[in-house]
């Protein structure tokens, strides 16, 4: 949830309630209650929205603005990598297997 809130803040919303109508969230979701699937879909939407913002900028400013989403994406990836370091091997392997990958211990 902290990761989802960070993405929401990066998109310019102070809270889930502020993003309810612009993002089409339900009343339950605007209270911060999501199923795993709903949270995953919202994360995908918010992460995809970052890369869609660069064409709307003034051409003279385009190079600096286009670099920002990559920096934000890299920061997000670094944050996720840090979180994953704390996950047990068994839990991580179970999640990767659940997503359809094959896991072998070396």
What would you note in describing this structure?
There is one protein chain. The protein has helices at residues 2-10, 20-23, 27-30, 36-52, 62-85, 89-98. The chain has 106 residues and is mainly α. The chain folds into two domains: 1-52, no CATH class; 58-106, no CATH class. It is elongated, with a radius of gyration of 17 Å. The protein starts with a helix and ends in an 8-residue tail after the last helix.
Features:
6 helices; 106 residues; 2 domains; mainly alpha; single chain
Structural class: mainly alpha
Instruction: Assign an overall shape.
Output: elongated
What's the alpha carbon Rg, rounded to whole Å? 17 Å
Strand count:
0
Spatial separation of the terminal alpha carbons: 32 Å
H/E element sequence: HHHHHH
Portion of residues in helices?
Answer: 55-70%
What is the overall number of helices?
A: 6
Secondary-structure topology with pairs:
Layout: H1 2-10, H2 20-23, H3 27-30, H4 36-52, H5 62-85, H6 89-98
């Amino acid at each position: 949830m902290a990761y989802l809130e960070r993405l929401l803040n990066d998109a310019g919303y102070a809270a889930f309630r502020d993003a309810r109508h612009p993002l089409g969230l339900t009343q339950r979701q605007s209270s911060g209650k999501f199923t795993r699937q709903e949270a995953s879909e919202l994360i995908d939407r918010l992460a995809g929205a970052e890369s869609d913002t660069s064409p709307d900028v003034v051409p003279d400013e385009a190079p600096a603005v286009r670099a920002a989403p990559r920096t934000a994406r890299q920061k997000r990836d670094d944050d996720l990598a840090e979180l994953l370091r704390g996950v047990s091997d068994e839990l991580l392997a179970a999640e990767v297997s659940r997503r359809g990958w094959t896991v072998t211990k070396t």
